[in-house]
Specification:
CATH class of the largest domain in chain A: Mainly Alpha
Strand content of chain A: 5-15%
Structural class of chain A: alpha+beta
CATH topology of the largest domain in chain A: DNA polymerase, domain 1
Radius of gyration of chain B: 18 Å
CATH class of the largest domain in chain B: Alpha Beta
Order of helices and strands of chain B: EHEHEEEHHHHHEEHEEEEEEEHH
Shape of chain A: globular
Largest sheet of chain B: 5 strands, antiparallel
Number of helices of chain B: 10
Helix content of chain B: 25-40%
CATH architecture of the largest domain in chain A: Orthogonal Bundle
Largest interface: A-B, 29 and 29 residues
Mean pLDDT of chain B: 97
Strand order of the largest sheet of chain A: 2-1-5-3-4
Oligomer: heterodimer
Shape of chain B: globular
Order of helices and strands of chain A: EEHEEEHHHH
Strand order of the largest sheet of chain B: 4-5-10-6-7
Low-confidence stretches of chain A: none
Mean pLDDT of chain A: 96
Radius of gyration of chain A: 16 Å
Helix content of chain A: 25-40%
Distance between the termini of chain A: 51 Å
CATH topology of the largest domain in chain B: Uridine Diphospho-n-acetylenolpyruvylglucosamine Reductase, domain 3
CATH architecture of the largest domain in chain B: 2-Layer Sandwich
Chain lengths: ~160, ~260
């Protein structure tokens, strides 16, 4: 069955079985391996991507369900030369150890910061309840998101000036 | 994990969906897929064919119709959370996590009738109505008749839950929940609502084979009596490795007291 997706701004068409999960489509058809499969049971959030702007778990969505939609993955939000503020935040605040959960943490946090640019610590922890981390104990992840929120607000103010 | 193979088609309208269901009795409806796909990945469900109803625009969004809100079955938990509906926004905040709420739908959850889902308790307490379309036309089912058994709702084969009618005249409401820390499902969830005529309806979920009204609590509150303990008999409840039936019965008492206190 033909699936056409716009992923990180580029259109792709592939012929896949209906049972192909979006995460496998991204990783195995498009070789975008930044999106991880953690628990594979809709719990851990490592596979989080944006579909038409909403953060979703790509292990719990068929590629055919997303056909015609716009997908953004961790590869699409920043580059090595020009990191997204959240990527910088996780770097600066040591928001990861093994890094397996990080792409999902960042994609989930990006949705939070879009509708809540200046979140409280409670709001960050509440929003990230669908993203599990086995290394950090979450404290540095919260600081990383706060770091990014501050940087994005500063950038916004600089642009306003 | 890959689900077992299946055929897949989409419906763009309710009529198209009803016709497709009539043509192929093996079709299984998929909405947001956040109950069905996990079950399919674990091969607990192996439907031979899926009908994707996510794109049916006439089943999306929330309208006001006099004393009722009319909620499209394909409205996501995230949209419910941001809405002006009574009680449902609070309950939606307890469902899964933000990513789950972006895909899961109110109609999908209610038609699935998971015994541990949150919405059925709210539906019973609010006295919502379910608008169900089938090959013979449309029928309306009261909340009290909707939840038939474990994973069994009043929606029959060949039918489609299209809308949920929620009273807009609720004076006050509350939902209290003891949630499973990993799955976020209700170990027990308890909803109460004071209706336009001043009477209170109450219901619980998570503790039995389906959600039930709570007559003992309703009788006490509506009769201005003290709320008794032992609102439900543990013999009528289910226990599992997370919580015994006796513990769930205790939780019903605790959560009922908290919910009624919040009603004011």
């Amino acid at each position: 069955m033909n699936v056409t997706l716009t992923v990180n701004g580029k259109s792709y068409t592939r012929d896949v079985e209906p049972r192909t999960l979006l995460v496998h489509f991204l990783r195995e058809e498009l070789l975008l391996t930044g999106t991880h499969v953690g628990c594979d049971t809709s719990q851990c959030g490592a596979c989080t991507v944006h579909v038409n702007g909403d953060a979703v778990k790509s292990c719990t969505l068929l590629a055919v369900q997303a056909s015609g939609m716009e997908v953004t993955t961790i590869e699409g939000i920043g580059t090595v030369a020009d990191l997204h503020a959240l990527q910088t935040g996780f770097w600066e605040e040591h928001g990861l150890q093994c890094g397996f959960c990080t792409p999902g943490m960042i994609m989930s946090s990006a949705e939070l910061l879009r509708h809540t640019p200046n979140p409280t610590e409670d709001q960050i922890r509440h929003h990230l309840e669908g993203n599990l981390c086995r290394c950090t104990g979450y404290h540095n992840i919260v600081r990383a998101v706060q770091h990014a929120a501050g940087a994005m607000q500063g950038a916004g103010q600089a642009a306003d000036d | 994990m890959y689900p077992a193979s299946f055929d897949y088609q989409k419906a763009d309208s309710v009529d198209q969906a009803i016709a497709a269901l009539a043509a192929n009795p093996d079709l299984k409806l998929i909405a947001g897929g956040h109950s069905l796909l996990p079950a399919m990945k674990l091969r607990l469900a192996q439907p031979p064919a899926l009908l994707d109803i996510w794109g049916i625009q006439e089943m999306k969004g929330i309208q006001r119709d006099g004393d009722w809100f009319v909620v499209g079955a394909m409205t996501t938990h995230a949209e419910v959370l941001r809405s002006d509906l009574p009680l449902f926004p609070e309950v939606a905040g307890w469902v899964g996590d933000p990513m789950v709420r972006n895909r899961g739908t109110i109609g999908g959850s209610l038609a699935h009738a998971d015994p541990s889902a949150d919405y059925p308790a709210a539906a019973l307490a609010l006295g919502v109505q379910f608008v169900i379309r089938g090959p013979d036309g449309e029928r309306t089912v009261d909340a009290d008749d909707m939840f038939v058994g474990m994973f069994e709702s009043a929606v029959r084969s060949g039918e489609l839950l299209t809308h949920i009618r929620i009273p807009a005249t609720i004076q006050a409401s509350a939902y209290e929940k003891f949630r499973h820390p990993a799955s976020h499902y209700a170990v027990v969830g308890l909803a109460v609502a004071r209706h336009a005529d001043g009477t209170v309806r109450a219901a619980y979920t998570g503790a039995a084979e389906r959600a039930h009204r709570l007559p003992a609590l309703e009788a006490a509150v509506n009769g201005s009596q003290a709320i008794p303990t032992g609102l439900v008999d543990a013999g009528d409840l289910l226990g599992d490795r997370f919580a015994s039936a006796e513990y769930r019965a205790h939780l019903v008492d605790v959560l009922a007291a908290r919910a009624i206190e919040r009603l004011g």
